[in-house]
């Protein structure tokens, strides 16, 4: 049953400790991968060393990995790099010091003033804003609750149609674009982009009639609200959900929890791991909410896009094998349309390819599930730009740049879908 989201829910954080997690002495390194041997070594290290947090790692020779190293592992890590002759440089001397206080500010946003592009909104601020839009633009915007998080927060979905189309055909069968963001809690720029997408399609609808006339948009701006709030309040780099998972462990990696080749490769069976796949597929209410919406839209949804950060990638199935789907060229063409548009507009380059062949195999992802089970013909993950040396912590001054650049790519891909599936 679908019904409007009218209130935001405040819940106590479960399983946390008092105060924020300290990252004092944590260092971020950039490590060059100049041979296949070095690529393979870093991948093995990522899988075996749970204390090392790989922010960015792909399988492309010539690329750079980024690794956050806790103080206790610094000597060990440096010795490994020296033994493998891996060139590296320190990007952040002390990660704690780049945690800007204003990222955790409590100043509230007034929805009537429009969407701010210089602040990461908190969950309640997102809910207030989209509910305000739904009231102000009720002729073509609806907000529905598609599920609740473990801690009881409503997971909202915003559906947007062309105002003229909605009046004449409220249940239009136009192709649906389904976008979600924020399943990984620490990736704050992804929900910021989803909110900007909503804002552009609604408040600047007159400028985007080509996106609205041929498509219906369903956008879930925050798919993991518990983890997102926890990453603001307690632990900036928290990635998972917040449901207790095993003894003294909390959370599941939502993007390893989908029931398509679940738990086969690229996910951990250790409950405390950042990539823990859960004790069973769809163990998390957050992933079940996205699943149910995808299945509700089965046959209508033609484009599924999951927003993540960071790395400037456009990735498509498969994530569980290096083999490609039979009609991978169609997905590739849409992704390349997005990459091309961004490069022409800003000069930024995006790497396009299947998840396994660009990054590494990781089964249980939402894009594979959408493609294989929900029958969405164009399904992909978009990794947004990071914050330079700050990675998951782009300063608020970069939000506008990031979301506007990303919108160029999303717009181009959506138009490509509209041309081929209307």
Structure description:
- The active site is at residue 383.
- Residues 119-417 form the Peptidase M14 domain.
- Pfam families: Peptidase_M14 (PF00246), Propep_M14 (PF02244).
- InterPro entries: M14A-like_propep (IPR036990), M14A_act_pep (IPR003146), Peptidase_M14 (IPR000834).
- The structure is a single chain.
- The chain has an 8-stranded mixed sheet, sandwiched between helices. Strands 2-3-1-4 form a 4-stranded antiparallel sheet, with helices on one face.
- It folds into 2 domains: 27-103, Metallocarboxypeptidase-like (Alpha-Beta Plaits); 123-421, Zn peptidases (Aminopeptidase), CATH 3.40.630.
- It is of the alpha/beta class and 422 residues long.
- It is 32% helix and 17% strand.
Topology:
Elements: E1 27-32, H1 36-48, E2 53-56, E3 64-69, H2 74-83, E4 88-92, H3 123-136, E5 141-148, E6 154-160, H4 163-168, E7 176-181, H5 189-203, H6 209-213, E8 216-220, H7 225-233, H8 285-296, E9 301-309, E10 313-316, H9 328-346, E11 351-354, H10 355-358, H11 366-372, E12 378-384, H12 399-421
Helix pairs in contact: 5-12, 9-12
């Amino acid at each position: 049953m679908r019904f409007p989201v009218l209130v935001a829910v405040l819940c106590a954080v479960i399983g946390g400790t008092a105060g924020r997690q300290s990252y004092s002495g944590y260092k971020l390194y950039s490590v060059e991968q100049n041979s296949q041997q070095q690529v393979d070594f870093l991948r093995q290290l990522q899988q075996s060393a749970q204390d090392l947090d790989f922010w960015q790692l792909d399988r492309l020779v010539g690329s750079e990995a980024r690794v956050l190293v806790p103080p206790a592992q610094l000597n060990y890590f440096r010795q490994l790099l020296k033994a493998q002759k891996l060139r590296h440089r320190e990007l952040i001397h002390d990660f704690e010091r780049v945690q800007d206080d204003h990222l955790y500010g409590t100043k509230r946003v007034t929805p009537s003033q429009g969407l701010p592009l210089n602040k990461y909104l908190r969950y309640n601020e997102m809910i207030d804003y989209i509910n305000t839009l739904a009231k102000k633009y009720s002729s073509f915007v609806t907000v529905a609750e598609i599920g609740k998080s473990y801690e009881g927060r409503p997971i909202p979905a915003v559906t947007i149609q062309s105002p003229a189309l909605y009046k004449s055909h409220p249940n239009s069968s136009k192709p649906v674009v389904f976008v979600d963001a924020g399943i990984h809690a620490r990736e704050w720029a992804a929900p910021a982009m989803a909110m900007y997408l909503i804002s552009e399609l609604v408040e600047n609808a007159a400028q985007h009639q080509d996106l609205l006339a041929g498509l219906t948009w369903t956008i879930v701006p925050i798919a993991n609200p518990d983890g997102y709030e926890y990453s603001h309040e307690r632990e900036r780099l928290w990635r998972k959900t917040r449901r207790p998972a095993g003894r003294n462990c909390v959370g599941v990696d939502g993007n390893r929890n989908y029931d398509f080749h679940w738990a086969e490769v690229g996910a951990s069976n250790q409950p405390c791991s950042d990539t823990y796949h859960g004790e069973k597929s769809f163990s998390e209410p957050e992933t079940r909410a996205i699943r149910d919406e995808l299945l509700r839209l089965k046959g209508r949804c033609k484009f599924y896009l999951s927003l993540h950060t960071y790395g400037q990638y456009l990735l498509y199935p498969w994530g569980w094998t290096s083999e490609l789907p039979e009609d991978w060229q169609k997905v590739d063409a849409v992704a390349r349309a997005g990459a091309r548009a961004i490069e022409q507009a800003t000069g930024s380059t995006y790497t396009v390819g299947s998840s396994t062949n660009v990054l590494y195999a990781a089964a249980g992802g939402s894009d594979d599930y959408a493609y294989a089970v929900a029958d969405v013909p164009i399904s992909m993950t978009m990794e947004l730009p990071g914050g330079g040396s700050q990675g998951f912590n782009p300063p608020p001054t970069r939000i506008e740049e990031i979301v506007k650049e990303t919108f160029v790519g999303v717009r181009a891909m959506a138009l490509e879908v509209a041309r081929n599936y209307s």
